[in-house]
Write a structure and sequence with these properties.
By secondary structure, this protein is an alpha/beta fold. Helix content is 35%, strand content 15%.
């Protein structure tokens, strides 16, 4: 089954057995009747499993070419479950320009539990190996990274992980399974903030994990059930609905992202543009190798690198909405230093390029001309 067909049919029953519903129904129930103690029809309590959530999890596994999917209450809840695979004394090697919420979870929560985190530049994947010790149990990768759009070679990272018997986890939120499938490149697990492109309509908060290995899946399911950070049936329904148009939406995101990146690259008031599709983007060749296209996320800085210029720009936008998050059908603009990455100390974030003048755009699926005209008037 090809990807475009998987988004609609992957992992799904043709119809609901009760009444023939084409879409899996929303099973808005906390518990299920049993004929005899332990004698249920596959579901007993909705923290442990829910038919609507199961339909979504099957879809997630299908589009990521995995065998097991798990849906969580948020992306951070999904990462939290992965870190609960570790124990005090274990070490994690992570990219140094990851999402601010992930950084906060690592450094403000799990660091206090005796887990050590090494944040390094991974643009040259070979650099990962020198930071692996006998205590390293996890390599955590974002690619493209948030918000600098750095590209990390997943296949090269996977070879290093396998060599040292270390798990490789990939945050695939920016790329989506339409553009990139880390499990096929050797990763052990894939994470999504399903709030973003998978849901696609800015109306749900959810996270997801997908793996191939049954033993790893069983461990994660136990953690999910024991900790309780599960996705509800209504949210599961919304994300499952979103996935059915993922291929169509991401194609337009990519088209508009390219137009926006090229426009900004030629604007006299713009300093640097970060979009993996630009030939001068670091690791552009790796992006071409492991991605189908280059996505709708674009970051840039204004000349002069002044905070006031960045703030003035985002406040003047009319089609782009100044808001947190990304991946919805509508175009959004954000100021990472004061929004998504505010939890990272200024000195640390500026080392990775997240300066006060950096602006991050989530380019939506509106008409290209309207988006360009909005940028033009805001840059003024």
């Amino acid at each position: 089954m090809k990807f475009n067909t998987k988004t609609i049919h992957g992992g799904q029953e043709n119809t609901d057995p009760a009444y023939g519903s084409v879409m899996p129904p929303i099973y808005q129930t906390s518990t299920y009747s049993q004929d005899t103690p332990g004698g249920h029809k596959g579901f007993e309590y909705s923290r442990s499993g829910n038919p609507t959530r199961t339909a979504l999890e099957n879809s997630l596994a299908s589009i990521e070419n995995g065998n097991y999917g798990l849906a969580f209450g948020s992306g951070l809840a999904a990462i939290d479950a992965v870190l609960k695979l570790l124990k005090p004394g274990d070490e994690v090697v992570s990219t140094n320009d990851l999402y601010g919420g992930s950084y906060r979870l690592f450094t403000s929560i799990f660091k206090d539990f005796g887990i050590k985190f090494n944040f390094i530049g991974m643009q040259n994947a070979a650099d990962i190996e020198q930071h692996i010790t006998e205590n390293t149990k996890l390599i955590w990768v974002e690619t493209p990274t948030n918000p600098m759009m750095n590209i990390i070679d997943i296949e090269a990272a996977a070879k290093i992980a396998k060599k040292h018997s270390v798990l490789l986890g990939v945050d695939n939120t920016f790329a989506t399974p339409y553009l990139q499938q880390p499990l096929d490149l050797g990763a052990d697990l894939v994470m999504h903030s399903a709030t973003k492109y998978l849901g696609g309509h800015s109306d749900v908060v959810m996270g997801a994990l997908v793996v191939k290995d049954k033993e790893l899946a069983d461990k994660l399911y136990f953690i999910q059930n024991a900790s309780g950070a599960v996705a509800g049936p209504q949210d599961s329904f919304l994300v499952l609905r979103g996935i059915k148009t993922l291929h169509l939406r991401v194609q337009r995101h990519c088209e508009n992202g390219k137009a926006v990146a090229e426009y900004l690259s030629n604007h006299p008031k713009v300093d640097k543009v970060y979009w993996p599709g630009l030939e001068n983007h670091p690791n552009h060749d790796i992006a071409k190798k492991q991605m189908k296209d280059f996505g709708g996320m674009v970051s840039f800085t204004t000349k002069g690198n002044e905070l006031e210029d960045a703030v003035s720009f985002v406040e003047k936008l009319k089609v782009f909405t100044l808001a947190e998050s990304l991946g919805g059908v509508e175009s959004l603009a954000g100021h990472p230093a004061s929004m998504t990455h505010a939890s990272i100390p200024k000195e640390e974030r500026e080392k990775t390029g997240v300066v006060d003048s950096l602006i991050r755009l989530s380019v939506g699926i509106e008409d290209e001309e309207d988006l360009i005209n909005d940028l033009k008037q805001a840059l003024g």
